[in-house]
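Input record (Table S2, row 258):
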Amino acid sequence: MRSMIPVKSRIIDIYKETDDIKTFIVEKTIDEDPVPGQFYEIYVRDAGEIPISIASWNDGLIFSVKRVGAVTEKLHKLVKGDYIGLRGPYGNGFPEHRRFTVLIAGGIGLPPARSYIEYWLSKGAKDMQLLYGARTPSDIVYKKLLDYWSNYIDVQITVDRGDSTWDGNVGVVTTIFNRIKNKDADFLIIGPEIMMKFSIIELKKMGVSDDNIYLSMERRMKCGFGICGHCNIGRYYVCKDGPVFRYSTIKDIPEAIH
Ligand SMILES: Cc1cc2nc3c(=O)[nH]c(=O)nc-3n(C[C@H](O)[C@H](O)[C@H](O)COP(=O)(O)OP(=O)(O)OC[C@H]3O[C@@H](n4cnc5c(N)ncnc54)[C@H](O)[C@@H]3O)c2cc1C
Ligand code: FES
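Output record (flavin-adenine dinucleotide complex):
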């Protein structure tokens, strides 16, 4: 059985992305290499343990974390050189890149999308498109990376509310679905469930099959690998059978997408 004991890992560097999101580069003290879309349980001393997706794993593990409550608040207070605990990698990750893929990411959904884009770009795959929605221009993370990726793949960004610095699209992410380059694609949706719900409605109108839509689901977790029963959606455990599910697998489970 997998160990529940976190492995001590040093924070190598920290970058402030936005007012409430920080990126942590963490020493990779666990040998097993993650795959895009997997997550780790991060233990923060005197606070607790939380699941966080890998944003990448070059020169250490990269996590981007939004401050929302007790554990993430404490994590945001740590500084370079401090230690956290790590368990993982857990979960199934995204499906293999097999053809044109459209990533639809909202808010803190961009970090897991980053793991996919960086991994497959490193393998030479350029048949990808990113549609990214943020609340406001100042909530956009990875600004330099978004510029860099746009040299290789199509990157479309929208914000819910614009400001004087923004001359791009204003509106929720579905308002840029008319820019989708290929409907005969795999669609990976990563973000809040409300975004998933409306994205699926629009994709269905475009004739996309349920089998070609993948959702990265979030649930409260404890063990992270299928023993405690905290994270179920119907008979599936999000930590072990997910977090990435084909829409066709979970669409008939009432509590899957609210
Ligand atoms: C597989 C997975 C991957 C994740 N990856 C990331 C990531 O890359 N970056 C990131 O910032 N966050 C990620 N999260 C969410 C992160 O785990 C939670 O934000 C964190 O657990 C909140 O802990 P807290 O003690 O700071 O806040 P809490 O006080 O526990 O919660 C604050 C608020 O967030 C809600 N919340 C907390 N956890 C969840 C959850 N799992 N699902 C839905 N709502 C939740 C609570 O209901 C509450 O409203 C991921 C979650 C899962 C399940
Ligand atoms: S978190 Fe324990 S079964 Fe999923």
